Structures are given as C-alpha cells and as structure tokens.
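As promised in the previous annual report, we have extended the structural survey to additional targets. Below is the entry for Carbohydrate kinase.
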Amino acid sequence: VLMVHDYVRFRLTGEATAEITNISGSNFYNQFTSRYDRDMMALFGIEEVADKTAPVVNSTDCVGHITLQASLDCGLCPGTPVFGGFFDVVASAVSSGIDRADTLSAVAGTWSIATSVTDSIIASDFPYIWGKYCIPGKYFVHEGSPTSASNLSWFVKQFFPDDDRCY
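The corresponding structure token record, generated without further manual editing, is:
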C-alpha cells in the first residue's frame, strides 16, 4: 500500500518505500510511536493492509536509482539517484525557509494551507494536521481549508469586475 508519490518513486526505482513527511501526515502513522498505526487501520476497517505497508524513509534518503525500464518509459537517465522527497506542502515550507515555530508558510492554491514547524506535537491543538518534518526532531503543523481558489475568484470579481485579464 503506497501513497501516490511513493508509487511514482516505486515505478522509477522498483523499491517500495513510504516517505516520512507524507505518511506521517496521514491517519495511518502514529507520530508518538513512529510506526504505522494498526489500531487506526482497524478503526477504518482496513486492518488487512497493516502488513502491506512499505518501509518509511527520510526525505533525503537515496531510496534507489532509475531503472532501465523507467528510463525507457520516461526519458530519465538510468542509474540516476532517486530520493525520498517531500509531502507537497512540506516542500513549499522548505522552499520558503520554514524551520522554526516563529515562521509560517502560506499556500494559496486549490486549498489554503498555513504551515509551521515545531519541536513537539501539542496534542490539545486540534484539528490541525501534524507530521514529521524533514529536519530530524521537528514536526510540521498544517491548518487548511479548500477555499483558497474560491476566495481569489470572489476577490477578482469584487475588485476587478471589468478586467478580463484576471480570468
């Protein structure tokens, strides 16, 4: 059982792995035990997948190399190293220089997502999404809603109703 970007990496390398920033932000990984959460899988009624999960790797781990078949399929050079990667909003936070709690990354796309980094999970701060950050010993915390694009559309219609360059 793999998440989408883990599956893409599997197709490129032939190695099935789950990247930490992605899997830890899911309901299938327990932040406190640093393991897949069998109890949560049972709660969802999918306990049969517990033994079909992939080993968890760090963002910067080299997890394999482009196979000959993958190179033929997509034009990448065989043998090119492939790394764990990032959860998309974690990648945005990293590229924004977010590495401590007094900084914030805001993404305005289909979703509006604010991300910060902490030294620990604050269990009472819910309904935030928590996950392991790409910096060891750090956690990301997300707050998001699927309203970003609709907010932008409303703003453009309100303030630039006659400007067709905005659409």
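The helical segments are 4-13, 20-23, 38-43, 68-74, 88-95, 148-159. The first helix runs from residue 4 to 13. These points will be discussed at the next consortium meeting with the crystallography subgroup.
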